[in-house]
Write a structure and sequence with these properties.
About 5% of the residues lie in helices and about 35% in strands. By secondary structure, it is mainly β.
Length: about 375
């Protein structure tokens, strides 16, 4: 009866055209963050807590505020703020246990970066990026350096440039450039240490150009090279590295944003350099970059970009609905995979670009 009710609701919302298999697990609301946030970051720390930084709140003004989520008490608590307010920035856990916060936007596009030290609970400046950028991607490489690529820069310019942060010297330096400027793209570390960059766009409104193309960054050469293209042009999507070394690309949209959001998914095989269709989601979803999580059993949890939560089984290539979802689409929300196997979802915005402090926990 429960499964039938879910199907009726989904069909009524136009979110499914096939039977909705009910997935194992629940999504339950928890106490909210201390402030409303969207376009923020969440980083799991070595002690199991999640660091929540920046984003924008009411009025879309950037935030310097920071909070910690404690998975034991399941509550958020405010800590010392960042030195600079920022949204659309990146956050990467370094091998030292410190967190690199870089770039973003606060009325100006930012070159500045800072380090969070869990031992002191404070932020301090580190080297500045070679280029001011927001909406970029950032990936920890196998040698401990961080690759930052693309995004938007000063004057609303779309960037094909990339750079590397070296924690040993605390400096940034330029590396190879992508074939095209990209924003709203994704990045995944591949098993051989290379980085897959997929989709995105450049330009605005009538001048926007969306990509199906993908490219791969080789850290040993410091260069990007073209690889197979996706079957669909997409931006504002998400991509998750799977246990077998392939990458799952989900959702996103065309030029119409919410009216053109996708239910489709594709899978990249690094052995062949090609994408192939990987199934169809029950809900169209977009603006979900970084909100999909690889679970311990090898399945993928999709929490962002739609009110319906789903799990993808990469063996059967099937998406299944989780009975209790978040109810409304959370756009530009963040997730963190917690030590006990549960997953935190926090913030984001819905209709009217109104950011939220709401949070949920997925329980397997």
């Amino acid at each position: 009866m429960i499964r039938l009710s879910i199907l009726v609701v989904l069909l009524a919302c136009g979110a499914a055209t096939e039977p909705a298999v009910t997935a194992v697990g629940r999504v339950v609301p928890i106490a909210p963050m201390t402030v409303s946030r969207a376009a923020h970051t969440a980083t799991l720390l070595p002690d199991g807590k999640a660091l929540i930084t920046g984003g924008f709140g009411g009025g879309e003004s950037a935030l310097a505020s920071v909070e910690l989520f404690d998975p034991i008490t399941r509550r958020f608590s405010a800590i010392a703020p960042m030195r600079v307010a920022r949204s659309g920035h990146s956050s990467v856990l370094l091998p030292s246990g410190k967190v690199l916060i870089a770039g973003g936007y606060n009325g100006s596009y930012l070159r500045t970066a800072e380090l969070y030290d869990p031992a002191t609970g404070e932020f301090r400046p580190t080297g500045s990026m070679t280029t001011a950028r927001s909406g970029h991607v950032a990936v920890l490489l196998r040698d401990g350096k961080v690759l930052l690529a693309g995004g938007i820069g000063v004057g609303w310019t779309f960037l094909e440039s990339a750079e590397l942060y070296d924690p040993a010297t605390e400096t940034f330096r330029a590396t190879g450039r992508m074939a095209v400027a990209r924003e709203s793209h994704t990045a995944n570390l591949l098993p051989d240490g290379r980085v897959l960059i997929t989709g995105g766009h450049r330009g605005r409104r009538e001048a926007i150009i969306l990509y199906a193309s993908a490219e791969v960054y080789d850290p040993s050469a410091g260069t990007f090279a073209a690889t197979g293209s996706m079957g669909t042009r997409r931006h504002k999507h998400d991509a998750v590295s799977l246990s077998d070394g392939s990458a799952l690309v989900v959702g996103g949209s065309d030029e119409r944003d919410d009216r053109g959001a996708y239910r489709s998914a594709e899978r990249y095989d690094p052995a062949t350099g090609k994408f192939a269709a990987a199934g169809t989601m029950h809900a169209a979803r977009y603006k979900l970059n970084g909100s999909s999580v690889l679970l311990r059993d090898g399945t993928v949890l999709l929490l962002g970009g739609a009110g319906v939560s789903e799990i993808y089984d990469p063996v059967r290539r099937v998406f299944s609905v989780i009975p209790e979802g978040v109810g409304v689409a959370r756009l530009f929300a963040v997730t963190a995979a917690l030590p006990d196997g549960s997953v935190l979802l926090a913030g984001g915005y819905g209709t009217g670009v109104s950011s939220s402090p709401q949070a949920w926990i997925y329980r397997p």
